[in-house]
Design goal:
Elements: E1 7-12, E2 16-22, E3 36-42, H1 44-55, E4 58-66, H2 71-80, E5 83-89, E6 95-101, E7 106-111, H3 119-132, E8 138-142, H4 153-163, E9 167-171, H5 174-182, E10 189-190, H6 194-201, H7 208-221, E11 225-229, E12 235-238, E13 243-247, H8 259-272, H9 277-292, H10 302-311, E14 313-316
Parallel strand pairs: 1-4, 1-8, 2-6, 4-5, 8-9, 9-10, 10-11
Antiparallel strand pairs: 2-3, 6-7, 11-12, 12-13, 13-14
Helix pairs in contact: 1-2, 1-8, 4-5, 5-6, 8-9, 9-10
Organism: Deinococcus phoenicis
GO cellular component, one term: cytosol
Function: Catalyzes the ATP-dependent phosphorylation of fructose-l-phosphate to fructose-l,6-bisphosphate.
Amino acid sequence: MTAAPFRVATLTLNPALDLTVRADGWRQGEVNAGQSLQLDAGGKGVNVASFLADWGLSVTATGLLGSENPERFEMLFRAKGVRDEFVRVPGATRVGVKLVDGAAQETTDINLPGLAATPEALQDLEARLDHLTADHAAFVLAGSLPPGVAPDFYARLTARLRAAGRFVALDTSGAALNAALAADVLPDLVKPNIHELEAALGRPLGGEAEVLNAARELLRRGAGLVAVSQGERGALLVTEREAVRALPPRVTVKSTVGAGDAMVAGLVAAHADSLGLADAARRATAFSLGAITRLGAHLPPRAELDAFAAQVQVDAAERVETA
């Protein structure tokens, strides 16, 4: 008997059309020359869905999408074979502006507010999520919450999904992350960057020992894997039994947009293949490298990803226990 495919559902409550403008050496307050412009369907969960589809997994994307400008999203989903389960809501999906300075390898983000979520739209969305629970093994809850959504939305959804035996990955920040980490049931995978983790815990994390202790604090609360991304310094991945540090090779960066989303996708793909922590770190870092070496949420061919993975340095992180 053929095993059922590993299906992943991604949730994006606050998607955006990412307008990426490359303007090398641009200066604030001056007239600047741009080299290129690109408009992509975006939002953290949409990006994760795009990366996972490139990898070859069966993916469903859901969330809230403005009915006035869904075309870019629909084109992306058709092109990549992603099942579209977004709830259409009145109005236009927000635009996020990305100013990319290729010379300095820096990206400046300008994020506009999203559409307000109505109780009716959220009720429709939760019904769709309940339906997806029947045949999807993993759920990725990603991105900010739009107006009209309570800060504990992800926390409540995590409890429902984990009670149904589903793998839950969370990538958010601010009040939504605070509520999720303070809940009785935590996600299987939590992937904050270092600044988001500091904000959620309310204290600075000065060195690796403090980051490890912070991660283990979340593990004791019920998380299964904590992955803390730290930009060029790589990432720390921590489970109850082990901790590894993944350091990426130097590459030419075209845009940092979506790097964290690619890491989430890599970790979910690693979970689908039951990889050990070191190999999961290599795959997740390779996904991030693949993302930052091109514009838009697209992965390179597997051969290139394998080459990146082979260049990732993975070491055992110092085990530091708290009293």
